[in-house]
Amino acid sequence: MNQRIAVPLPKAYLLLNHGPTVLVSSAHGERRNVMAAAWNMALDFDPPKVAVVIDKATLTRDLIEASGDFVLNVPARAQAALTLAAGSESGRGMDKIVKVGAGTTAASRVGAPLIDGCLAWLECRVIPEPHIQKTYDLFLGEVVAAWADPEVFSNGRWHFPDSDRRSIHYLAGGSFFATGEPFEV
Ligand SMILES: Cc1cc2nc3c(=O)[nH]c(=O)nc-3n(C[C@H](O)[C@H](O)[C@H](O)COP(=O)(O)O)c2cc1C
Questions:
Q1: Cα angle vertex 151, ends 33, 40, to 5°?
Q2: How far is Cα 59 from Cα 72, in angstroms, rounded to an integer?
Q3: CA-CA distance, 3 to 24, in Å (whole number)?
Q4: Is position 183 within any domain?
Q5: How many angstroms is it from 141 CA to the middle of ligand 1?
Q6: Tens digits of per-residue pLDDT, 64-106?
Q7: What is the span of the domain harbouring residue 170?
Q8: Which one of 44, 77, 121, 126 counts the least CB within 10 Å of its CB?
């Protein structure tokens, strides 16, 4: 696991505000899994909440519905191939976390693991909303703990110290943008 520091919960929205594609990790009983999710967003400041689309065909959906929690991991540019692999094959019948070569660390407040090497992590508990889960595959979560690699995010600011440690934004067909240069207005 890379270094990580706690992010104050009212600042957790900043980890998703620029729209990174995330890895959703999940676990229940002996099973654990990871998938990619581009369709995610921050939903509130305090207590922080997130929204993420988890298709009903996915193993992730089964594990999240069974456990009631998940982690949104913000992968680095260096993990783009891992992210594409996690989003291209279901973990049914295998340990996809091993298959994509990811290490994990136990989370502090939820059963789903943290994916090593990411830039930031949001530990989330499902806010049950059966109608939107069933109709739109949309899951809401309360962020109960948040972490960041301090070289990349600290004091409420992203630093992106080098090209490998930028967040990534999915287009389609294996194409991504890396987060670009910041500017002030
Ligand atoms: C970059 C990328 C982003 C994706 N975003 C989403 C998403 O937001 N929601 C979703 O349900 N599936 C998304 N997918 C597809 C899932 O990651 C894919 O169905 C995955 O294989 C599900 O894995 P599982 O069955 O092991 O849970 C995305 C795939 C890729 C490659």
A1: 40
A2: 16
A3: 20
A4: no
A5: 18
A6: 999 999 999 999 999 999 999 999 999 999 999 999 999 999 9
A7: 5-178
A8: 44
> Does a structural domain hold residue 119?
yes
**DSSP character string of 113-126:** PEETT-SEEEEEEE
Q: Which of 35, 62, 71 to mutate to test the pocket of ligand 1 (most atoms within 8 A of CB)?
A: 35
Element at 6 (helix H, strand E) = strand 5-6
Instruction: Give nearest CA residue, ligand 1 atom 24.
Output: 90
Residue in 138, 179, 114, 148 with CA at minimum distance from that of residue 43: 138
Q: Does the pLDDT at position 114 exceed 90? A: yes
Q: Which atom of ligand 1 is least distant from the CA of 33?
A: 26
Q: Residue 92 maps to which CATH number?
A: 2.30.110.10
Q: How far is the CA of 133 from the centre of ligand 1 (A)?
A: 16
What the block records as the tokens of 122 is: 């949001």
Beta bridge partners of 170: 176
Kindly state whether residue 115 falls inside one of the protein's structural domains. Answer: yes
Domains in the chain: how many in total? 1
pLDDT at 26 over 80: yes
184 is a domain residue: no
